[in-house]
Hints:
The complex is a heterotrimer of chains A (236), B (310) and C (308). Chain A has 236 residues and is an alpha/beta fold. Chain A has helices at residues 44-51, 73-79, 87-90, 96-106, 111-124, 140-152, 170-182, 194-200, 218-221, 225-230; strands at 3-13, 19-29, 33-37, 58-63, 66-67, 80-83, 158-162, 186-190, 203-208, 211-217. Chain A has a 6-stranded mixed beta sheet, with helices on both faces. The two termini of chain A are 35 Å apart. With 310 residues, chain B is mainly α. Chain B has 2 domains: 10-256, Arp2/3 complex 21 kDa subunit ARPC3, CATH 1.10.1760.20; 269-310. In chain B, helix 1 (10-35) packs across helix 4, helix 3 packs antiparallel against helix 4 and helix 6 runs antiparallel to helix 7. Chain B is globular and about 75 Å long. Chain B starts with 9 loop residues before the first helix and ends with a helix. Chain C is built from 12 helices and 2 strands; from the N terminus they run αααααααββααααα. Chain C has helices spanning 14-20, 24-30, 51-54, 57-73, 79-95, 100-107, 118-123, 143-169, 172-181, 186-216, 235-266, 283-307; strands spanning 128-134, 137-142. In chain C, helix 4 packs antiparallel against helix 8 (143-169). The two termini of chain C are 38 Å apart. At the B-C interface, helix 1, helix 2, strand 1, strand 2 and helix 4 of B face helix 2, helix 4, helix 5, helix 7 and helix 8 of C.
Amino acid sequence: xxxSIEVKDLTFSYPDGHPALRGVSFSIAAGEKVxxxxxxxxxxxxxxxxxxxxxxxxxxxxxxxxPLSEATLGAIRSAVGMVFQDPDDQLFSLTxxxxxxxxxxxxxxxxxxxxxxxxxxxxxxGMSDRATRVxxxxxxxxxxxxxxxxxxxxxxxILALDEPTSGLDPRARRGLIRxxxxxxxxxxVSTHDLRMxxxxxxxxxxxxxxxxxxxxxxxxxxxxxDLLHAHGLELP
Amino acid sequence: MHIPDGFLSTLVAIIFWVSSIVGxxxxxxxxxxxxxxxxxxxxxxxxxxxxxxxxxxxxVTGGTSGHLLGAALATILVGPWPAVVVMTTVxxxxxxxxxxxxxxxxGANLFNMAIIGVAVSYFVYASLRRMTRGASWGLFxxxxxAAWSSIxxxxxxxxxxxxLSGTTPANLAVPAMGGIHALIGVGExxxxxxALAFLYATRREMVGAAPAAAKGxxxxxxxxxxxALLLSVLSPLASAHPDGLEWVxxxxxxxxxxxxxxxxxxxxxxxxxxxxxALATILxxxxGTLIVFGVVVAVAYLRRSGKPAA
Amino acid sequence: MLSLxxxxxxxxxxxxxxxxxxxxxxxxxxxxxxxxxxxxxxDPYRPLASxxxxxxxxxxxxxxxxxxxxxxxxxxxxWPVYLLLWSIALSAEILSGxxxxxxxxxxxxxxxxVLAAIPLAFTTPGTPWLEFPLGPWQLTLTLxxxxxxxxxxxxxxxxxxxAIVLASSTEFRDLLLAMRAVRIPRLxxxxxxxxxxxxxxxxxxxxxxxxxxxxRSGIARRPADAPGRRPGGSLAWRAKVAGxxxxxxxxxAVDRSDRIYVAMLSRGYDGEVRSFATQPVPPGARxxxxxxxxxxxxxxxxxxxxxx
Lengths: 236, 310, 308
């Protein structure tokens, strides 16, 4: 069966020797929406950074059926849209347009196609009128949406999001959850926001100490207060 | 030390533009080799940090305050070549956006703050660090000395540029600029040491090691030594014998004047039909005033009549 | 470097202070009892609708540089040429809607440097105009010297006006396009862009640091509350604290640049700076450019011919 993401026995240690991932295996089917939860330093962000080859650990990773290697790196980075926690890291251009166009430009697309994609991506996140704005002048919620647009413009098959709701006020958070619910692609969301998980993501993977300690339907896992408590999580 | 436009003669401004462009082009090439694809984000954000760091002022006394220039700090943290690029970015944007230093004078300002500042910092820091053999007090002493000398030597360069342009006599410019910046350099030194102390406590690997880039640093080291020697010899000399520099300035004046015969198609041309030179000048002045007035009134009128439409 | 910011008893309102010297901002922010001002004051760009704002940034950039070059090349004593150059600057100031007052107020920024040219007034040989003793010296002000001084001051003053109109009427991204148009390496232009983008982010962080510092340092509200004590410890201590914050900023910058790099890589960045080919300069702007350059060339020629 063709999986969107397949990770087999992934192990990774930081240069200082701190082991971040200790044999992680899972697979995600096309169109699945999965939460990645666990305490800080459990290895969630490290895992996400492996999905597009920014970090290289031991083990096998395949994205959309293609094993990750030097040769497939470009294609895989296009296929996995990585949305980072701090939108100020992701929006590094002067204007919203330049940021959303960055991915498509590096995909080598012609200018007309890039413009079309920017337009569509901004429309998808409801920010069409912000194209000429300067990133610094946007609100937190707007920044998050545009950070998502910067990867939508690359037309990825998978969205990997790191803490998408952190730092948002309730209204912006609500809007963002609605937006994520409307997006059709495969999704892997690293988060502490279990209320969002319950609402949005039918499957949950709990990561702790670099190991997968639970992987199953969200509704089931969230019914187990002992499990949650053991891994530093709280019932929503 | 940011020289505005108007204070440097065109020739001096252009000479230093060319020197800075050559230095910068070389620095960009070296940086590309050393940092690879990381260079754009790293240096861009570091430039922003220096710029923001320059805003952290601390009161000295009586309503005056000191703040950082940052050439020494940048040199210590990222090595000489990237520091040249970082300081170029900072000084250029300051000129372009904040009029902190002129645009035509930018070449000279870049030369003083990005090239001399970094080269001297590197020379002083690398030498002292080696002499103190990696002792932690050596880091701070070297940092202070590098920061102070970068400011002081760069100010001497600025003074000589002004003297060379015939704007300020060397025997005034050198002691005045040098004297003020010898004090300012103390502020720069203190704040640089403060920054180094913070980094030493939190991220020792960034500053703890001996000079960041021994790689290819020898050239910069020699350049720094050369500049420091040249300026510290040349400045008192020029100051003691201002006639010498004035002579150079005059030569340059001749150089610029030498061009005029080319255009001197109508000798003693003043204004047609007016033979008296003084009268012609006055008339030209009045004419000019009228034209200015006319243009301003016309523009104002156009603007007002255009407003309802806009 | 140290800039001298004279913020004495009768300090000007914060806003004008900031406009005059954006660096004063953080000093101002931490003074107790003063409002915190948002950092947008930093950007001198003033969004207005005017023909000068609408003019292609590249044309504006080239014209401003050409103007400054012409001012620099105008020979000593060519007062009518200076006057005409000023009329051009004035026209741009009025047309841009910035207003003469705004530009001249900002232009006052560069004035302190004029001190450097004052010796000219006393050292140029010529007809003595005014003599007075200063300590052990007898200073002789000559008319020629005064004119030489005025020559430098006027050059500086005219040039800075052009730079102000350019910076106040052109958005930073258009300035970047202009830099690309005059063949400044893409790499450097990309760094300018990143620096501008993160300047605001880092300044916000710096403001937070300063606020934390002022919240913790028990500065007496009024000097009278603690007579004879310098607020905030010794000079070295204050410099060390400021330095610590500079180091802190550096650290944040390095960490952030790592994260930005990762975000760039994730979207296919390969170390090469890429961007769209720039649009050609529209014909109208082209005409403006040539007319402007011709005018400046004429003024330059006139200056050289008559006063050179």
